[in-house]
Write a structure and sequence with these properties.
- The structure is a homodimer.
- The first copy, chain A, is α/β, with parallel strands linked by helices.
- Chain A folds into two domains: 3-91 and 107-219, Aldehyde Dehydrogenase, Chain A, domain 1 (3-Layer(aba) Sandwich), CATH 3.40.605.10; 227-371, Aldehyde Dehydrogenase, Chain A, domain 2, CATH 3.40.309.
- Chain A has helices at residues 3-19, 23-39, 41-57, 62-68, 72-87, 125-137, 151-167, 183-190, 205-214, 237-249, 265-279, 290-296, 325-335, 348-357; strands spanning 95-100, 106-113, 116-121, 141-145, 175-177, 198-202, 227-231, 258-264, 285-288, 301-302, 316-322, 340-344, 362-367, 384-386, 394-396, 402-413.
- In chain A, 53% of the residues are buried.
- Chains A and B meet through strand 2, helix 10, helix 14, strand 13 and strand 16 of A and strand 2, helix 10, helix 14, strand 13 and strand 16 of B.
- Strand 16 of chain A pairs parallel with strand 13 (362-367) of chain B.
Chain lengths: 415, 415
């Protein structure tokens, strides 16, 4: 058995205990984790220091260094997150659709944990604790495989969480860290079909594609967002300008940020200058179709075909003038990644048809795409945003980390 | 573009139309299909005749020939199935969990079709129509890839269904048949990630494993059943004997049939002769542990290690005496396939703990495992029985062929 197979087997056994542990014990374990992280902060900061020194020596990009760095305030945020998860309702054990059948069998569907969840992510040590807390609360054991740049920080967090689990009377192996951070260990994790029930990649498009392409374990695909804001000819144009400004610039690096603006020809001449008046305050680079350039001027770069399919993740916006509703919907269904799509309109039928016809995890009328998020949607917390249609779609909260089983009460029935 | 890619693209476009077609039009299309199959029966029977002649020439096993054969009665059954699907409630469009957020956004989750479903199955022409009807009712386009032995029958059914769709005002390409029945076309279908939203294999363990191992498209794993009946020391032994007799012999070839009997040591001496008195009437071959052989005699074959993990699909039963509840649950969780598991007991705590601790799609107290079935569970119809934990688990009805999208009504909100 490889190291990882042994971790998988241990996680499977730990997961069985955790699956029937009950809400009180799981919450006690989460509180023990929160307290242990608080009291062993020095250990975490020292481990993070080691990661940061290596990062500086390797000339890591400043934005990535920032995501890697921990300080007292960020650790307090992590602890807070754990307590928020503890406060959420426990999804496990709810029985739905229970009914008697004509033969007297009483059949219900009970919500149960998935079992063992693998998480593959990049160099963000806070994900280590966030993801573990969500898995624990939903009764799942978790095997974490973080980026090698955060290895010392992750190791410190995981050691603390395992100690806290033990104190709370749960198996240490409910949380495990893959200690081999080579590419090979990621590949091995993707093939651990005997022990892993699902694998969730959290990170950039490259990581996610690699997991989706190579995994034999079921994968929940998360996060790539090529999102559009479509300003319909009957839109409130000021509202439209506000919405595209917010969707593009409030946090351009995240997946629910807009990458492309579509506007009906009938209002393009009036709308585009309004939108630009806002976007220019953040130095947004526009890449437009010929009509957009004709209206706004040559400072707009010509959009290439590839621009229509790109998640820029930056202060860059593709802009296209369309003939009307049908072209807009067809364009979105062709070029969108099925994440979040918005129409701005005062027309009742255009609004309803947009909700019907656009195929995406979240479809908006008159609001910014930036709201696609577990907290904003009222799920309490999220482990990621699924852009696939199977199992979970959109922000995934605790319920999306569960499966179900049919329970059947009989009195001797045979068929 | 390959032939299959063209079919995929056509199915994707057809699926968009179908996804918003509404219940009345979908039901009208199903009724048109039912009528067309009735009125063009001669065509189907002639096509089936061609398949049957080839099957006889190739010396196909009689049981397989029987599954391939169609006659007027079987066609009437197929037509009946289509009308039953038409009569089921439409799962599409239901909005759940709709609520206002503090910022005034109104957010709901709407049930939508998956999109395009691929079905890979063996030489059973009735599956062609069953599967298509379930996909159509749930708003999904479907690409069917049946076994080559049923090719002419499948082609006849699909031609008739496409004509009927057109008459009902829906795109013909809502239903498509893969006309290349080589292994290569199956592989290509498993990799059609751009057009297929999910692939469902229906058939034997070999087919299913091949799809699970090789597909890049998300797969719903169906059907392998290594199911147990566990007779607890506080069981009604007559009930236990009835249940294992039914679970083993009422239809041994199906996945919810029992393959293994576990019995507590305390009652093995009293129970096993009772069970054998029934099982012998069907000439069931027993493969037992040493204790079983000591109780029943040497006619019981010694069970090999492999027997504990085998879906016999035949009048063969593995039998093991266990020390008690814990060993039984551990054995089931180790050797079961997560399909259907039953305990026979009068003890309240044993019953509840079995439901809690056994990890399977359907867990029974005092009833035969043979009830795991969409009709028996009240789902109305089923496309298969999922043994995976993601998306769908257990019998899959129309709801399991759907996804969801968040719909968001705003009044200009930005974040």
């Amino acid at each position: 058995m490889t190291q990882l197979e042994m971790q998988g087997l241990a996680a499977k056994h730990a997961g069985r205990v955790l699956s029937i542990a009950g809400t009180a014990r799981k919450n006690a374990a989460l509180e023990a984790i929160a307290q242990a992280i608080e009291s062993r902060q020095t250990e975490i900061l020292a481990a993070n220091q080691a990661d940061m020194e290596a990062a500086r020596a390797a000339n890591m990009r400043p934005a990535l260094q920032d995501r890697l760095a921990l300080d007292e305030k960020r650790i307090a945020g992590v602890v807070d997150g754990v307590r928020q998860v503890a406060a959420l309702p426990d999804p496990i054990g709810a029985v739905t659709q229970m009914a008697s059948r004509p033969n007297g069998l009483v059949i219900g569907r009970r919500r149960v944990p998935l079992g063992v969840i693998g998480i593959i992510y990049e160099a963000r040590p806070n994900v280590t604790v966030d993801a573990a807390a969500l898995c624990l609360k939903s009764g799942n054991a978790v095997i974490l495989r973080g980026g090698k740049e955060a290895f010392h920080s992750n190791q410190a967090f995981v050691a603390i969480m395992r100690d806290a689990l033990e104190c709370a009377g749960l198996p240490r192996d409910c949380v495990a860290l893959v200690t081999d951070t080579t590419r090979q260990s990621a590949t091995e994790l993707m093939n651990l079909t005997e022990y892993l029930d699902v694998l969730i990649p959290r990170g950039g498009a490259g990581l996610i594609q690699s997991v989706v392409q190579n995994a034999k374990v079921p994968v929940i695909e998360t996060g790539v967002g090529v999102c559009h804001v479509y300003v319909h000819q009957e839109a409130d144009l000021d509202m439209g300008a506000n919405i595209i400004f917010n969707a593009k610039t409030s946090r351009p690096s995240v997946c629910n940020a807009a990458e492309c603006l579509l506007v009906d020809r009938a209002v393009a001449g009036a709308f585009l200058p309004k939108a630009w008046a806002l976007l220019r305050t953040k130095n947004v680079e526009l890449r437009g179709c010929p009509e957009t350039r004709a209206i706004l001027g040559d400072f707009v770069k010509p959009a290439t075909e590839a621009d229509w399919d790109t998640e820029f993740g930056d202060y860059i916006l593709a802009v296209k003038v369309v003939s009307g509703f049908e072209e807009a919907v067809e364009f979105i269904n062709t070029h969108g990644s099925g994440h979040s799509e918005a129409i701005v309109t005062n027309n009742y039928f255009a609004a309803q048809q947009f909700l019907d016809q656009v195929d995406a995890a979240a479809v908006y009328v008159n609001a910014s795409t930036r709201f696609t998020d577990g907290n904003e949607f009222g799920l309490g917390a999220e482990i990621g945003i699924s852009t696939q249609k199977m199992h979970a779609r959109g922000p995934m909260g605790l319920e999306e980390l569960t499966s179900s089983k049919f329970i059947v009460y009989g009195t001797g029935q045979v068929r």
